[in-house]
Each structure stands twice: as structure tokens, then as C-alpha cells.
Amino acid sequence: MQPRKRLLTTVTGAAIGLLWCASALLAETGETSAQTARLISVDGAITEILYALGGEAQLVGVDTTSLYPDATEDIAKVGYKRALSAEGILSLNPDRLLMTDDAGPPEVLEQIARAGVDTHPIPDTPSVAGLHETIAAVAEVLDRTEAGAALSAQLDDELAQLEAATERSSKRPRLLFLLHIGSGNDMAAGRDTAADTVIRLAGGENVLHDAFSGYKPLSAEAALAAAPEVILVTQRNLEQLGGLDAVLERGALQATPAGQARRVLAMDGPLLLAFGPRLAVAAAQLASELGIIDEETDERSGLTAGQP
Amino acid sequence: MNTRVLGLRANRPASHAASHPGTHPVLQRRQLERLSLAALLALMLSVALLSIAIGPVAIPLAEVLRTLGALAGLPVAEVAPQHEAVILSIRLPRTLLGLLVGAGLAVAGAAMQGLFRNPLADPGLIGVSAGAALAAVSVIVLGGQGLAFLTQALGPFSLPIAAFAGGLVTTLLVYRLASRDGRTSVTTLLLAGIAINALAGAGTGLLTYLADDQQLRTLTFWSMGSLGGATWPAVGSAALLIAVPLLALPLLARTLNALLLGEAEAGHLGIAVQRMQPLIVALAALAVGAAVAVSGIIGFVGLVVPHLLRLALGPDHRLLLPGAALLGGSLLLLADLLARTLVTPAELPIGILTALLGGPFFLALLLRWQRRTA
Where would you find the membrane-spanning parts of this chain (chain B) (predicted)? Predict the structure, then answer.
């Protein structure tokens, strides 16, 4: 009698529990369309933020600039963000396309919009304030504004710690960032670029900050005149060229202070240039590589741990 | 041999006619011509149907036919609205644009090869493509700064309008350089075309050098061509501009046939050579300029299609020009079908596929020509 009674209560309890779970689940799926909408992201930073806010289950397609996290490899690729295909995107049956200003071509976006997909522009200025706007905009789309605010606060926190750490150092190394070097058209970063902001946040100085805006081809003499102390390249570019010597052979880089001291730094390109939620991590990594912050003493702050 | 090249059943009577000299060759020839054009028309229609029926969004053939039926005013059952939107606002304009651009490029190519009596001539030779490219790259690179007044005034249409105008202006310049005292030398036209092409190429190169990373990607994609910008307004403007040369050039078939004999000989045949030459150049430039404006630079169609037809049907422009229009449209649509479906949900630039289909053919053509003349 006793065991049978206990069994009965357990079964009833479990049944009620299951019913409650099911009704909660049903209520949730029927409730908000923002949390079930099928999304396509055509920007690397937007994709990273989507993952950071836990919205990845809604992601049905990404562009070829979405390289982080590795899980993006398993999502359908809709091509380069400026050469999208209308029907290709519609075949994924999305509700919303999250894009930056430079997505296109405009005719394709128009066709996608006319087929009933919400083409949703997200601001993307390469500055810290701009990144906060991007996070807020993505959070709003996901209807996860609290998570967005938390991510923004975490970013501010990390950046404040980094700033405090870099201010303790007297070093202000002068950096030259080169994108795609060795292909005959060495592009260097001026101001208003992701690289410029990351260098500044890391406590360094971009030698071309006052020279121009955006990326421009760099001449040998301009490189010499800029007198960088460190040359920054992407990891992949360094591997393609086959090492430090190949980088210094370009133009007059050998004769710059950086070339004399053989100081060439290579960083993960997607991390350095993505300008997403890992901005502080990227800047902290650069700062520690430059010796501005000490990895040992700043370890406790969690800045150099390299977590996503 | 001809049947092998084109794979058309319509050519079989040709070998019959050749092997039975007793039959009426003239009658046979007329019939053959009509059959060939009918076969090309059938090819074009079936490729067009394929292009409307196949795409990344899976739509059952019945729905496709029903949508087309509803468009023709037939009483048919309802179609899923999203499928209808894909067919009516994406595939149909794209198919029509592909037909127009392919036909325009191929007819212009055939006319240029006839005018220059040179199998290597393509519409690019008179500077259309190079001039259009220079203008388009100028808008892409300088649109934010030096040419801001233009991009602000014309909005999203600044690129196609600039490309079209650039193509026509360059052609006019080439033509002016080759004309003296109202007479035009075809040889000078050819050489002036090469020189202006080089100059426009230098300008494009300079702008490419000045371009930033994003602009570089944009102009790379533009120069490989795409029918992705096919909206109804684009189809409408392209149709207005390409229809003129598409209808007018076949009317000049006799003139082009006479010009094959040489300028002096054509003059003796009563052709107003000096008046006809600029007309042919202008019509070809109009077709190519409009095609480049809406779809970027698409190579090989203008060069390869006329050759294919000349091998199969002979050099008579009365057959060659309408045939080129039909086959050019079919070939470009086929290339676009592959471009749209090979890497879904992304898309390949169509220039890659026309070159991939056209390149090997052109090589084979060269080797055959070499063997024949050796």
C-alpha cells in the first residue's frame, strides 16, 4: 500500500511537472516573434554579437566576412556582403536580414525587401561608441535588450581595466598596420579604421593617424617618413609571405626603426579587424604583445586570458 | 561536321543537300535557314523556361507554369504568394534581362566582325567596354568625393548611366579619330580603338590603384559581370535601348554581306559605305553600352556566338544576325543559370562562366584554323 501510494504521488507530480513545462514551452514559442524569427547576418561583427547575445539558434545564414566563432562554418554562406544573391537569400526563408551600410548590391536588397523580408540596417562606426550602438541595435532585434546592456557593460568594464593598465605603462609605441602586404599594393591603415582604434585602445599610436582616413596604398618613402617602431600585420599575411624577413624586404621597411629592431608583430586578422564584442580582448592581446601591459600582473583582471 | 558543332537536328538536311546534288539546292537552303532559326528559337524558349523554373528557391514546375499562366490571363489555381514573388520579381526580370543582354552582345559582335572583316573583332574593339568600365570605376571610386554631385543627382542610377555614357563617348572619340574629310578608314578605326582602349585601361588602372578596400571589391565584382541587378525598371530601360540595334542591325544584313567583299566592292554594289559604317558602329555601341550598364562586363558572348553560327550556318548575315540574337540570349541565360545555382545561397559572377564556356571553344577554334591553314 505504502509503496504504491508513493508511486502514485511521484507519477502525478511528474505528470504535472511535464504539463507545466510543455505549457511554458508552448507559451514561449507562441509569444515573441523576435525570439523565433529566422535571421541572416551579412556582417562579421553582427554575427559575433548575435552569438554573444545567445541568438545563434535563429541564425540561418551568414556572409563570408562572418568568420568567428568557428560554429559559423556550419551555417549556410550567402556570399560576400557586397555581392549578395536575392534568390539565394530567399531560399533560406529568412524573416530578417541584418546588414551594415555597405551591404549590397542595392537592387538585390530591394528585391529581398519586396519579397517580405525585413532588411534591417545596423549601425557600424569603427569606434567604441559605435560598437555600443551596434550591440544595442542587434539586442533590440533579438528582443534581448538586457543581455545587450550586459554585453555593453562588460565591454566598458574590460576597456576601463585595459585603460587603467595601459596608463600604468610609460610606453607609447608607434605602430604601422599593413593590410595585404606583398601583393604589390601594400595597404596601410589611417584613422577611422578598426586597426586604428584597436592600436589606440592598446596604448599604442598609429603613425598614420593624422596622414589619412581609411586604408591607402603606402609608398616606401612614406613608410620611412612615418618612422614606425613596430610593424603590425595579420597572422595569415605573415604566413603567406613566409616570415618576418619577407615583410621587412617590402619597400623601405628595413630602414624604419621597426625594421632595424626587427619588430614585426602578427595578430589574428579576424580578431584584430572584426570590431565586435571581442574588441577589448583584441586590444589587450595587442597591448601585452607590445609589452605595454604585463601579462603576469594583469592576469587576474582576466584581460589577457583570450576568452571570447 | 556542322551538326556536330551545333548539335542541332535542323542541320541534317544540309548534309543531305550536299550529298544529293540532284535536289533543288536553293529551295533546300531556304528551308534549312528557316529550320535553323526555328531550332534556335526553340532552344531559346526552352532555356528561358528552365531559367524561370530553376533556382535556389525550390518551386514545383506546376506552380511555375501556373504563375506564367496567370500572367498570360489564364484562369488558373492560386500559387503560394512567396513563390509568385520569386518568379515575378526575381526570375522573370532576370531571364528577360539575360535574353536582352546576350542577344545585344552577340548581334553587336557579329556586326563588328562583319564590319572589320576580322574574326577577332568584338564590340570591345571600338572602345565601348573600356569606356564604360572607366566611367563605372570613376563612379565607384570617386562617387563619394570628386563626383559626388553626379552620384547625388542620379542616386542609384549613376553607375549604369555613367557606364552607358562612357561607352558611347569613347566610341564617338574612336570614330572621330578614324575619320578625315568625311571618310572613315576601317584600319584606322581598329588601331584608334586599340589606342583608346589602352588609354581607358590606364585610367581604370589608376582609379583601381586609388580605390580603397571596399571599392576594390565592388569594382572587381562589377568587372566580372552579373545579372543580379535585374529589376523591372532595369529590364525596361535595357529593352528600350537594346531593342533598337536588335531590330535595326538585321535590317543591315545585306550591307554587311556586301562589306565582306571589301569597302570598294560594296560601293560598286550600290551600298553607301560611308553612311552605313557609322550607323553600324553606333548601333553596336548602343547595344553593348546598354548591356554593360545593366550587367557589368560580360566577356566572350559577343566573340564566340557569331563564330559558332558562322561555323554552323555560313557567313550570310541575313541568317547570322537573327541567329546570333537567339543563340546569344540562350548562352547567357545558360551561364546565368549555372551562376545562380552552383554555389547557392551565394552566386558566382557570370563573367567567370561565360569565359569558362567560351575560352575552351575559342582555343579549339584557333587550333582548327591553324590546322586548316598549315
Answer: 37-59, 96-116, 128-151, 157-177, 189-211, 231-253, 279-307, 350-369
Which residue from B minimizes the CA distance to A84? B346
Chain A interface residues (partner B, CB cutoff 8 A): 61, 64, 76-80, 82-92, 102, 104-108, 110-111, 114-116, 179, 185, 187, 214-217
With contact defined as beta carbons under 8 Å apart, do B286 and B241 qualify?
yes
Cross-chain CB nearest to A87 (options B86, B156, B213): B86
ipTM: 0.72
Cα–Cα dist B101/B350, whole Å: 12
Contacts B229 to A, Cβ<8 Å: 105, 107-108
Query: What are B180's strand-pairing partners?
Result: B183
Inter-chain touch A87–B221, beta carbons under 8 Å: no
Question: Residues near B330 by Cβ (< 8 Å), separated by ≥ 6?
Answer: B40, B43, B44, B47, B102
Distance CA B189, CA B225 (A): 27
Structural domains in chain B, CATH included, are: 44-56+94-373 (1.10.3470.10)
Say how far residue B204 (Cα) sits from the centre of its chain.
22
Residue A110 backbone zone (phi > 0: left; psi -120 to 50: alpha; other: beta): alpha
* Closest listed residue to residue B287, CA positions, set B48, B99, B92, B123: B123
Domains of chain A: 39-143 (3.40.50.1980), 170-301 (3.40.50.1980)
Say whether A85 and B230 touch across the interface (CB within 8 A): no
CB spacing of B347 vs A85 below 8 angstroms:
yes
Closest CA to B50 of B97, B98, B104, B95: B95
Whether residue A212 contacts residue A226, with contact meaning beta carbons closer than 8 Å, is answered with no
- Asked whether the beta carbons of A60 and A78 are under 8 A apart, the reply is no
